[in-house]
Amino acid sequence: MSITQAPHTLRSHYARPPAIDLFAPQPGVARNADLYILRQILHEWSDKYAAKILTQLRVAAGPQSKLLVIESVLLYACDQPPEELAVKGTQALVPPAPLLPNLGGANARLYYGDVLMLAIYNGQERTVLHFAELFRSTGWELKERGDLEAFCFVNQEHERILERSYKA
């Protein structure tokens, strides 16, 4: 169910985005939540600090809690490792020759972003396997990968709906 289908959820205060310190133990309001969402958070941090964030969430999470991480994923310029293809939702990328598997310059924005995150925040973009290892090391498990292509175009509208609904 999306925010557009259930704005009453926000008005009911069942779903509320609390302001929290990601590096500290989570307050009671954030404990045992059904769902935790990290949107464009982890790429701003090195593995050391991303692991601290994920560990604090894991400690706060209940046995049925889920974690939704919305991040850009780096593609390989070479063939994808078989381990990555084993992750549910991952598709083999086989563009026509002479294109690289990562589509070369067509996806340069991701690689520029990776360098930018490193230079400004000491952060980094990650591959699917890098995310899987980071999650595993903090008590989470990568169960499925999904592409949110439409998210790139509609996220601003969803944020406006979220903002309107929450302030109402």
TrEMBL record:
Keywords, ordered alphabetically: Methyltransferase, S-adenosyl-L-methionine, Transferase
InterPro entries assigned: COMT-like, COMT_C, SAM-dependent_MTases_sf
GO molecular function, one term: O-methyltransferase activity
PROSITE patterns noted in UniProt: SAM_OMT_II
Residues of the O-methyltransferase C-terminal domain: 32-140
Cross-referenced Pfam families: Methyltransf_2 (PF00891)
Coiled coil regions in record: none
Protein's recorded name: O-methyltransferase C-terminal domain-containing protein
Lineage: Eukaryota, Fungi, Dikarya, Basidiomycota, Agaricomycotina
